[in-house]
Amino acid sequence: MPQTLSRTKTVEVDPNSTTGTPPSSSTGQPSLSPSFSEVLEGLSDPEDVDPSTRWARVAVPDCYIEGRKSITFQKLDIRESNDEYGRSEIHLFGVTKSGHSILTRVYGFGHYCYYPASPDISEDDLDPLRDYLNSVLGTPVISLIEFQKQKVTKDSEEASFLKISLIDHREMKRLEDMSFFVQTKPL
Question: Which regions are flagged for Low complexity bias (predicted)?
């Protein structure tokens, strides 16, 4: 029966060696320590790696896979895109408290913004306003405009806002750039 041999190699590296030749000891004899480049070359050999030092990701507990426990994570990055059908797709990259890297995909998120509603505007004005804004932008950008009551601060009274839903999140900047949405401050 053939035997499988396992070997471990401990290597001392002289960080000051840049020539690739072993450094000399104080006695003038060449040292047996390999150069840094020799150590790097040896790392590509899987037999030179001690199995106990191989890095492995911690397994995700079954309760997360089966959906029995909610996932809490720190968001590190957000990327937005559209799928092949033009629907919004948001990628949330993060890490859980236990150290698991995570990517959460949110499909079909409806992008929207709020704009303070004039007291003169009524429910009947919302569809014509949407049509007007889409015509000014040149393409249909706004899918829906509706009234929504919001508190500006915790202790304030509710105020009326226009909730403007977008067809494509990439058009948010164009909507913000319109003079219709520029608020002027009194001097």
Answer: 17-37
Burial classification of residue 129, based on how many CB atoms lie within 10 Å of its CB (0-12 exposed, 13-18 middle, 19 or more buried): middle
Q: What is the pLDDT of residues 75-106, one digit of tens each?
A: 889 888 877 877 788 898 988 888 888 888 88
User: Tokens in use for 187?
Assistant: 């001097």
Taking CA 103 as the corner, what is the angle to CA 89 and CA 94, rounded to the nearest 5 degrees? Answer: 115
DSSP string, 59-94: PPPHHHHTTSS---EEEEEEEEEE-TTS-EEEEEEE
Across the beta sheet with 142-151, what order do the strands follow?
112-116, 158-166, 142-151
- Arithmetic mean of pLDDT, 101-126: 87
- 142: exposed, middle or buried (Cβ count in 10 Å: 0-12, 13-18, 19+): buried
CA 143 vs. chain centroid, Å, equals 27
